[in-house]
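hiii so my PI (J.) wants the whole complex modelled not just the main chain, which honestly fair. so below is everything: two entries, each one labled with what it is. i double checked the lines twice but i was tired so who knows lol
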Amino acid sequence: MNATAHAPGAALASRSVVRRVFSTDHKVIGLQYFFLALAAVTFGIVLSLLMRFHLVWPAAHLPFISGGVMTPEQYLALVTMHGTFMVFFVLTTAPQGAFGNFFLPIQIGAADMAFPRLNMLSFWLTFASFLCMISAFFVPGGAPISGWTAYPPLSGVGDVSGPGEGIGQTLWLVSILIFCFASLLGSINFISTTIEMRAPGMTLLRMPLTVWAWFVTSILSLLAFSVLLAAGILLVLDRSAGTSFFLPAGLVFSGELESRNGGSPLLWQHLFWFFGHPEVYIAILPGMGVASHILSNFSRKPVFGYRTMAFAMCAIGFLGLLIWGHHMFVSGMNPYSGLTFSMLTLAIAVPSAVKTFNWLGTLWGGKIQFHSPMLFALGFVSFFITGGLSGIFLAQPAIDTTLHATYYVVAHFHLVMGVAAIFGIFAATYYWFPKMFGRCMNERLSKLHFWFTFAGAYCIFMPMHFIGIAGGIRRYADWTGPAYLAGLQPLHRFITIAAFITAAAQLLFFYNFFRSLKAGASAALNPWSATTLEWTVSSPPPHDNFAGRFPSVYRGPYEYSVPGAAQDFLPQNLPDEQAGVGAVSQESPHA
Amino acid sequence: MRIELETVSERRFRSPLRGSAAPAVLLALLLILLVAATVYVFAAHLFPPPPPITSAALLVDHQYNLTLCAAGAAFVLAQLGLACAVFLFRDRGQRARFTRGSTWMEIAWTSVTLCVFLGLGIAGNRVWAAIEIAPSAGDTIQVEVTESQFVYTFRYPGPDGKFGRLEAGLVSPATGNPLGLDPNDPNGKDDIVTPSLTVPVNRPIELLIRSQDVVHNFYVRELRLQQDAVPGMVIPMRFTPDRIGQYEIVCTQLCGLGHYHMHSLLEVVSDSDYNAFLKREAAAQ
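here's the output for the full assembly
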């Protein structure tokens, strides 16, 4: 009796929970991506701390490690999974999946993404992929040891090549395939939304640079992930169906000859890096957009050279597809192709440098307000400069031939695609938190978090350059092999200590974030006096973003300190007669 | 349509932070500290690589130093420029200088960076061509390098100058045939197999690098050279060492759980020591 009496209410409640969890609202999906990335980054950081600890105190007992003392294969499993979590589930999902999803439709004045159900499917596939990836830890043999690049034959022949290369590597590959598929669906959605769903007046050259960044990133995702998907399927076939796409004849493991013939390990490297290099830009382009957006907002100045900035992102996207070969200078590929890839790689440094000049130009003459999002955006610029410039060395095969696979490379890509991208994510989080959750984060804790993270990240990654120049090799489980490596131990100790302090400082962020969700001061509509459309709707925005009053757009996205205007910012949806500066508001970036 | 420009509560939200010089000064100081520390460590050569032992490696070092000057100058100027901007233009109640950009400046810095980066690229490619694309010298000593999990095995062709045939199916480290030498091939009878690499000084060497199982690498810091060993391929690597000594060979390509222990030794010896080495090893086969 009771059961039947309660049934309708319970069913209703569970249906509403289901509706909220399996939501097609781009804002809910954006938050789901955000929390997925938060979980993944926590895993990634814990794995890196275990590695850093092991490198300095190899005999110590560690938590989460079966057997207590880490074995070389466990170390390599951590290397693989740290890279995988960070690259796929943090640097791909947070900037694009989380913030792109949440803010792209609002910033262009749309009610939702073009394909809301597809959007939901993208997220849940990504989530399934994440669970599949984690499960690789718990199977016999453990997680794979072939790194996030999974070069065959190591990754292609099963567990004869090492522990973790059996079922663990298979799960890794299946997870990546699901992830690729989800990313393809997501990128189609982003592209369609940007092209089709813009509000009246939102011309391409009135789009915020964040939207430009997400748009270019989606095109890169579409082209890059489809190639990884194909390559991944071929590798699965090599592993499970006995094919030989990547496996040549004559492979011998433990005295046993493999019956393969005709494949090429270099084919995988080409296909993988055709994805892998654009992936760097998939991670960093949204950060560039966010940094431009925030630097303009808190300098109270238009973005310097808006049109150049948008064009530079397109140039970076285009060139980014042509330079994968710089990962393969020492791979045995024809040395002549090294010449080409080298010049194209140096060419991509030009739009990157131009962006940096324009960021400095945006700051110059401004009225800079040091709110926490601004500090992180400034940090982004600093790390992008440092990490970008070390790339000038690695872009030259003649220098790469000595720095390749050393800690110099580790320093380079962590600074430019890890730390800079994560500073972009932090900047976005602090900037949009009031809009996403309707509450403010504690500014004092946010700033403290910035100072520790900024100084800490430099203390971790700058010394890695010196280890690399001295010949310190990456992906080594300890320093008991080649004799000269022992001499680099003091630098490693310094890095490990810095890593622990910096990681501890992230607790400030987590505390601040979750406490502000519950107890933060309620946020105003437009706390940063910003111009773009997301600041014209309530915090958090209503279900259709604009409560039925869809905006028209009258001007570019960065109209700050316009001479003659009553306010030092002119919202994009403010009609000219209300702005009081009819003459100035004509669209003309170089007026 | 009515749009509220700024509410009273928003103004209150921003006002306590306006004009605060502390973050500007602190950030500028941290950036200056970063620049000073980096310049010091590079200029003082605190963690130098070992001296090079080939003239090609000297070219690499020269190109590295050239790039270090260009990138170092850009690093110093950009980071200090950032420090200046945040310090000079911190909010002191002034009005921001309105500008949307400058076409002339865009053209100027695009062309300058283009020239600098492509110039470096051309110089770098000349070095690369000198190392990798130059025709092999006549009087070359060939040594085959076979890499497998997690050992290096070197093979000299012996007095006949010809390597014997290898057969993957015959590979058997346990029975003393780690390379799978075909016992029926007369060219292989005098082949010399060793666990480390010995070469004479001032003679052009050509290594033929191959792998039996996964992708490995051959890296010697003093040569400033590394080369992946890829199964299914034989990849040449050429150098002419000009300094007698012992140098470590390490694997830089993730090759499995023993990756960190995969290393060997390059010994550069005098001509007479090299001949003695060949004689000794031939007797020991």
